[in-house]
Amino acid sequence: MTVTPLGIPRRLLEFTIDGEPVRAPEGSTILDACRAAGKEIPTLCQGDTLRPKNACRVCMVEVEGSRTLVPACSRRAEPGMVVQTDTERARHSRKVVLELLASSVDLSTTPQVAEWIKEYEAKPDRFGRTAARLNEEPKVDNDLYVRDYDKCILCYKCVDACGDQWQNTFAISVSGRGFDARIAVEHDAPLTDSACVYCGNCIEVCPTGALSFKSEFDMRAAGTWNESAQTETTTVCAYCGVGCNLTLHVQDNEIVKVTSPHDNPVTHGNLCIKGRFGYQHVQNRD
């Protein structure tokens, strides 16, 4: 059930996207307006529960009067604005960004990227086998989730979710510069020695699979992970009286991971360690 927030109705702005007049509530981004108009623009770092970070640069569009391309995820719509989403310049920008990302990190578990690479005719292999990669082994230092930084695009979503936008734990941040930049806990210690409270809200917002449930990681390694065979059931967490909504992902009659609806007014996609990881008792066969 989608809950409509109460409040003063926002003024509608009128502008143009790809030659078509559109109307969007004041405060909407270009990306919001495009999606409302049925126009899909690729994006990786944008999150519906986080403030835009402008990190991935895949959603760039042309705005009349702007010298440079602008990020659709953060640029606010303005009255009379003329936006072009599919110009040669915008498509070339997305092509190059996808090539750079796909040549430097593993995007094999990133939803829709393969489709985008095909659509924009990106050729990540043109940079050669010597293109910079982390080539790090996944960090498996706890029983709940895995950090595979070979898939990290430094979108900062996990940092924001762990920081002042949601959890306020501040367990992770970006360390290093240039090719050495990466997400890390303090002093790059094992996760078990950090301030992490294992809420898993960083996993919820990760767009590439750099952060994943240990159960999902193990099943992918074994070749048994099959999202098409999974069912999703939303229920209410029974651990306390807050009323957090849980979406149970079930495969072969086993819960394989737990998420939370982003449009739920209680959780907004966030959970605590019990809600996200405390499901083993449900399927204890002993």
TrEMBL record:
Start and end residues of each 4Fe-4S ferredoxin-type domain: 143-162, 188-216
Keywords associated with the record: 4Fe-4S, Iron, Iron-sulfur, Metal-binding
The keyword Iron is annotated on this UniProt entry: yes
SMART domains: Molybdop_Fe4S4
Protein name: 2Fe-2S iron-sulfur cluster-binding protein
Metal-binding found in the keyword field: yes
Domain 2Fe-2S ferredoxin-type: 11-89
Domain 4Fe-4S Mo/W bis-MGD-type stretches: 230-286
Tree of life domain: Bacteria
PROSITE patterns to which the protein is assigned, alphabetical: 2FE2S_FER_2 (PS51085), 4FE4S_FER_1 (PS00198), 4FE4S_FER_2 (PS51379), 4FE4S_MOW_BIS_MGD (PS51669), MOLYBDOPTERIN_PROK_1 (PS00551)
